[in-house]
Design brief:
alpha+beta, 215 residues, elongated, 4 helices
């Protein structure tokens, strides 16, 4: 074999090696597995907060105070639904729907003590409730002769509230009457405590319990 033939053979062999390397690289490149698709995460549904109803869902009788809400030395005096003929014409014009009243009293003859608590619950259309509240508040502020009545500080009850303390000139027993007016949702309530032994702190607790019953 001549030198020329050897060089030509070596050149051909080199080309074959280079071709095999390139071909092998292409094969490995083409056979590289495709990466798995990225899993799609299903978004969790957004939980919308439940919107509280703006009107009471329970009956007026269910919103009345129970004997268990009152101090143990009180007894039940009266509990009754309010009849339509019992309410004023103005209340009817403002859409009065239903009402309930309950009263309790405490009697201790040895201490000359007689004290009563009274609650009235009235349901109106929501759009008329502010008018009802304003009329009742103005009526309380219209003080009759011989009566001293003034607004007193009181914890906020329900949506709107106000409280008064009343005394009568010349009363030999110097009795006081506390009155709380408040609204919550479409309910208007009036709670009074009067007699020989009234208790502002007990009244606050009773009013709070009354507001919690409106659902």
């Amino acid at each position: 074999m001549t030198l020329y033939d050897m060089l030509r053979w070596c050149g051909a062999f080199s080309l074959m090696v280079i071709f095999c390397i390139i071909t092998s690289g292409c094969i490995f490149t083409q056979s590289d597995p495709t990466p798995p698709p990225t899993p799609q995460l299903t978004p969790r549904p957004t939980i919308q907060p439940t919107q509280e109803s703006t009107t009471a869902t329970n009956q007026a009788s269910d919103m009345a105070l129970q004997l268990s809400d009152i101090p143990a030395d009180y007894i039940l005096k009266d509990r009754s639904v309010v009849a339509y003929p019992e309410v004023s014409q103005l209340a009817r014009d403002l859409g009065w729907r239903q009402g309930y009243m309950v009263s309790f009293y405490r009697l201790n003859k040895e201490k000359d003590d007689m004290t009563g608590i009274r609650q009235s619950v009235n349901v109106y259309p929501l759009e008329n409730l502010n008018t009802v509240y304003s009329i009742e508040k103005d009526a309380m502020l219209s003080v009759a002769n011989g009566t001293t009545r003034y607004e007193i500080p009181f914890p906020a009850i329900g949506d709107t509230s106000i409280a008064f303390r009343e005394t009568r000139a010349g009363d030999p027993y110097d009795m006081a009457v506390y009155t709380v007016l408040f609204t919550k949702k479409n309910v208007y309530e009036k709670i009074t405590m009067g007699g020989t032994t009234t208790d502002y702190e007990i009244l606050k607790d009773i009013a709070r319990k009354a507001a919690e019953k409106i659902r």
